Amino acid sequence: MSSNTATPYSSNYECVSDNCTRLLAAQMISNAKSPITSTSYILDNACGLGTVSKQFKLLHPHATILVTDIAPGMIDEIQQTIKANGWSNMYTEILDVRDLSTLRDETFTHVITNLGLPVPGDLESSTKIVNEIFRDSKIGGEDRVWLTAFYNAARAVRPNETPDSFIALKPEIPHASWIIEQLEERGSGNNVEIKTCVTYTMATSLDEMTENMMLAREMFFSRFTKEGTEIVEPRLWNLFSRKSCRK
Predict the structure, then answer these.
(1) pLDDT at position 2, please?
(2) What are the pLDDT digits (tens) for 192-241?
(3) What are the transmembrane regions (predicted)?
(4) 64-69 and 90-94: which strand pairing?
(5) Is 243 contained in some domain?
(6) Structure confidence at residue 166 (pLDDT)
(7) Is residue 83 situated within a structural domain?
């Protein structure tokens, strides 16, 4: 995701993704193997609105945190949160999750990359991100969620065309075995643990859910005309409706 793509999305992040981030953050923190203390230095990688860091601060107010994101809009939001809460030991940088070369090796006691892997549209991003996670810390955390509804909606509207490359993904990436292999190759030995986490977005109605998802339309339907995008919205509604009925 480029900064140009991510910045417009930042203002809609709360509606589209934040609940998924919050659920993942809670599980990440509760499952932390290394104790979080006043000497901990945490990297909140691809931080979004800083949801993970907020969870850390609630439970561990004395921990030092660096929050990074490629989108200036996201960083602006978290800087306002830092100021409002008076957090003196939380810092920000605009960085690409695929290139953290300005950060020194083995700097952090905990590295969290929540919904930051892979970077849509970059088929090599997963390997780059794993390299950076491992380089910056001996302890790396990683979780991901993929919005298949967008892909299915795009296919429904344009069945003979490949959807935007933004949602392209190598077939091996969604498998836990790939993550384990990548980290073990970089020297983690057998010290890798994979856990599943069920996440979801919330809305008061299917209409609101569809409207929230369409806030991210610039990322997933950039090549669609206005008329094409208007067709996508009811397709998404139908997809969400079928999932709700099955539950």
Answers:
(1) 47
(2) 777 777 777 777 777 877 777 777 676 667 777 777 778 877 877 777 67
(3) none
(4) parallel
(5) no
(6) 54
(7) yes
Note the pLDDT tens digit of each residue in 175-201: 778 777 877 777 766 777 777 777 777
Question: What is the DSSP annotation of 203-237?
Answer: -SSHHHHHHHHHTTHHHH-TT--HHHHHHHHHHHH
Domain containing 184: what range?
3-147+170-199
Number of folded domains that form the chain: 1
Q: Is residue 177 part of a domain?
A: yes
Report how far residue 89's alpha carbon sits from residue 209's, in angstroms, rounded to the nearest whole number.
36
Q: Are strands 110-114 and 41-45 parallel, antiparallel or unpaired?
A: parallel
Distance of CA 76 to the CA centre of its chain: 17
CATH no. for residue 80?
A: 3.40.50.150
> Is the per-residue pLDDT at 66 higher than 80?
yes
Cα–Cα dist 79/65, whole Å: 13
* Start-to-end Cα distance in the chain: 33
Q: Within a domain: residue 55?
A: yes
Averaged pLDDT for residues 4-15: 51
